[in-house]
Amino acid sequence: MSFRHTLTQWVGLAAFAASTWISQAQAPGHDGRGTTIDAAINSPAIGPRILRQPVDDVIVPGDSAIFTVEAVGTEPLEYQWYRWFEFTGSSPIPGETGPTLTITNALWDLFPTIYFVNVRNSFGAVDSRHVHYTFDPASAPIVVNQPSDIFVRLGSTFQVTIDARGAGPLKYDWWGRNPAVIRPYQFQSSSNPDYTSTASVFTSGTYWVEVFDRVGQVIRTREFEIKVVPAVGPYFLLEPPVFTNAAWGAGTRIRVAAEGADAISYQWYHGTRPVADATGPELYIPRLTSSTAGTYFVRISDPQGHFLDSSKCLVAIRAGLIPEFMVSPSNTVAELGSSVTLTSEAIIAHDSTFSYQWYRNGIAIEGAVHADLTLPSVTPTDLGLYWVTADTGFLQATSAIARLDLPVHLVLPATSRRVSTLAGFPGAGDAIGATNTAAFNRPTRLLSATSGEIFIADTGNHRIKKWLPHGVVQLVAGVGTAGLSDGLADFARFSSPQGLAFDPARTALLVADTDNHLIRRIRSDGSVDQYAGNPSGGYQDGPKDSALFRQPSAMARDPNGNLYILQSGASFLRVITANGQVETYAGSPLEGLIDGPRLQARFSKLAGITADRQGNLYLTEAGGNRIRRISASGEVTTVAGSPDGHQGLIDGHGTNAWFRQPQGIAVDEAGNLFIADTGNHAIRHIAPDRSVTTIGGTGAPGLEDGLTPDTSFNSPTDIAIDSNGNLLVADTGNHRIRMLSAAFHARLNLQRSGSTLRLEWTTGRLQSSLVLGGPWSEVPNATSPFAIPFSDSRKFFRLEWD
Q: Distance (Å, rounded) from C-alpha 603 to C-alpha 596?
């Protein structure tokens, strides 16, 4: 249709143009003086506009990625899809001229590829948003069971199998390294997960496998050794150390491990001479002198006469300048009025001279300046802790601490605790289920939940477990072998995990994955991923996803949501702030024993950390043997422990108390601190007034349940407090989780039966008589249970009858 119209402007017909003019035809005879124009108008002309943008696609490797665009505008619309690379820019994809782009068999690219489409018509053009495809993380390959070291007989056929999962088909590249070659070499690449060969003299070496999925994603197995042993006869599992040294007069040990088809025998040699009676896997040299130093080796043989000699081991005398105690005083019991001698013996290289000084309860004993200390008549004031120092005038050594007590005694504090085994049994193992059958391997860290559950870092088993209040141990995450893989908790791998903490919302468990140099996260849906750090390890602050850690070992969260992290053996404290930034919070790489502002303070091998509700931090120093405090305002002070870093087991106030390599630490709502004093095999208590007492353990490794203080532990490394006030202990050396019940008031029952007086402890412990130090107090006879409250931590009684 046509009509007469003056020149008309159409506004807003296309998104990319302010206006579009209708084409015009001039009438015949036009003279430019007001003659009208004939214009033919059918519809508005519109440039292309995108209604629906393409979106990123998440796919399984090898599948198709699909991107779709929806556009409108005056037909016909033309489409051209483009690739964009970081280094070459964009280029059109031949043949991709429709609204949908399909990329078949999508594979891994070293650099990400960006895609977009250009839509055009006669009136304009427009580009879509940039999109790309990513792979589902669950599709990355994982190694289900890591290979183990193996021994193979020379000339025998052996097979190594790798068990891996991933988007198949998987490809296995086998690599090796042995003394015959300088660099690693690849000797097999195939889809076969097995390697079969015949053992030769060149087979011994270190091996690993790189597993590739169909898109090129790769995971590397742990390194494992293949050791070729003789075709017949015995062989060594462990060679003697290449070099060992000890102080003059000290004892030293050398040990080997060997196997054979039949029973094997051992004979040790000093030089070329056999050592008398040295016919076991261990050689003990009781006293190292110029005549006993030298080279040693062991010959193993089987009944058929096959034998093999170990490499030679040099045993040398250490040229030390510090005295060393060969004999320390030992715990002693004695009757009142009897004579007691405490003995010691110190040595030093090069016949240097030194002097002795004995101490009782931390106070030097006047005139006690010899190796032995004799008390001619024991009195109550003689009871206590003894040790001796050997001093050259420049350097000093301290003996072990010994306790002098009466032969029958009972010392109860005003409150006692019962120690019991919560889970685990003697010896390392790996089992879940009922607490009396559950097993652990060096559990190191604990985390108590308000629900009553206890999370356990089962470090030696590379697993996280939890104890439930109804007496069952469950698996939280980890397959039981060292490695690094995310995904479902049952298939995730950790490497010697230690520290535990909740995330700010308490919806996920954070794990210090020590040997993977990561902070991992176990979500409530049972999946595991990386929370902070990088497996390469290092020291770098910044956003948590790019920050670096080196062997994170302990963690604690403050009331403000900040997560504090200690690194194994480090002298500084890191923090992941509530907004995800990693910072160095206190200390520096330089070790020291200096208080002050947190970034100027110096620490020595920080080992444990906890936070109270006011935001104060408490830390243990395994290197400085001290307990430190960082106030909420950032000031560092020493709570307890020797100012000079001396180690020992001494109770007292503040810096008069001594510790030995303390690690775990916990604080209750009243401000009481509880310490896992690892080197002393003890549990210590620091009251708010800074007084230190030992509430469990004897100073020597052991495994004894019952009432404190007559209990024992073996290298406890962590401590936690449950909602009922019980203390939970990771008794690492005993591979158990122990519990010290909430404190209770101690009571004694006295009963007379004929001429026998029986003393009954409320736990059922029996004594036929009780004799303790003074001052003496009379106790009335009783024919029925008689309660004696103990209000003093060392109040003594003597019980007598006709």
A: 11
* Whole-Å CA distances, 445 to 424, 448, 455, 513, 735: 15, 10, 8, 12, 12
Highest mean pLDDT among 139-148, 683-692, 755-764: 683-692
| Adjacency order of strands within the sheet including 682-686 | 652-653, 691-696, 682-686, 673-677, 665-667
Long-range contacts of 679-685 (CB under 8 A, 24+ apart): 679/647, 679/715, 680/648, 680/649, 681/712, 681/713, 681/714, 681/715, 681/716, 681/733, 682/649, 682/713, 682/716, 683/713, 683/716, 683/719, 683/727, 683/729, 683/740, 684/651, 684/657, 684/659
DSSP state of 437: T
Residue 464 in tokens: 């996280």
Residue 443: which of 411, 409, 478 has the closest Cα? Answer: 478
Give the alpha-carbon dihedral of 680, 683, 684, 685, to 10 degrees: 180
For 254, counting Cβ atoms within 10 Å of its Cβ (0-12 exposed, 13-18 middle, 19+ buried), the class is buried
pLDDT for 331-369, tens place per residue? 888 877 889 999 998 877 655 678 999 999 888 999 999
42-51, 54-63, 758-767: the lowest-pLDDT one: 758-767
pLDDT value, residue 711: 87
Q: What is the pLDDT of residues 468-515, one digit of tens each?
A: 887 889 999 999 999 999 988 888 999 999 999 998 878 899 999 999
Q: What are the distances in angstroms from CA 160 to CA 149, 201, 491?
A: 10, 18, 22
Tokens 């591979």, located at residue: 735
pLDDT at res. 28: 38
Chain position carrying tokens 């307990």: 627
Phi, psi for 384 (deg, rounded to 5): 150, -155
Closest CA to 289 of 352, 247, 227: 247
DSSP string, 170-195: PEEEEEEE-TT-SS-EEEEEES--EE
CA–CA dist 547, 562 (Å, integer)? 16
> 263 pLDDT band (50/70/90 cuts)?
confident
- Tokens at 370, concatenated: 């010899």
Instruction: Give kind and range of the element (H or E) at residue 770.
Output: none
Q: Is 0.85 surpassed by the pTM of this model?
A: no
Helix (H, G, I), strand (E, B) or coil at 461: helix
CA distance 299 to 283: 12
Nearest of 276, 259, 242, 325 to residue 284 by alpha carbon: 276
